[in-house]
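2024-03-11 09:14:02 DEBUG pipeline.ingest accepted 1 chain
2024-03-11 09:14:02 DEBUG pipeline.ingest length=214
2024-03-11 09:14:03 DEBUG pipeline.predict start
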Amino acid sequence: MKKINVYICGIGGQGTMTLGQLLKQAGLEEGMVVTGTESRGASQREGSVDSHVRFAVFEKGEKFDERRSIHSSLIPARQADLYLSMEMSETLRNIKYVSEDGIIILNKYEIWPPQVRTGEMEYPALDKVVENVKQFNKNVYLVNANKLSEEKYGDYSGVNMIFLGMAMATGKIPVKLETVERIIREQMWNPEKSIEQFRLGLEEGKKILKAGSA
């Protein structure tokens, strides 16, 4: 049984939990053991939100063994194979989860907390964020999903679907593209637009991976 962990972080309103739920549903539909959890308390107050998604993938002919299955909904420290950060400074908050050989996709988009707006504290510069993140993992890929969404659709509504596409581009997600697209069509309020955003993210993900880490 192979275990694959995906950690997603962002700010309330970015669709972090929706992204995690879609991944979990895809895994369940493909017969995997899937678990995870989300922080919901600040989801409507521009506060920190995260989602843990954990897959247990059976090898061919393997039978379920409770002793080898996933026993916690939280990803253990240093075991996230894929770390998706939808807001720049949030990347640092729980970087302890990423594994040494995992992949980090960092959104170059800033959502300032009240303390920054009032001048009580400074928002960290991108180069400082990347410098600190690289102390844990060197595989850092930068994107501005908000800019992509705004240029294409005139708003930020596509950010989480773009991130879902980029996540699939890494090859770290153990589900089929057609399964993800079917679930998007079944669950999203504007499925055709969401599929288009997902495919945009998939192509962008291939580009940033080819370009190399930051």
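2024-03-11 09:14:41 DEBUG pipeline.report The first helix runs from residue 16 to 29.
2024-03-11 09:14:41 DEBUG pipeline.predict end
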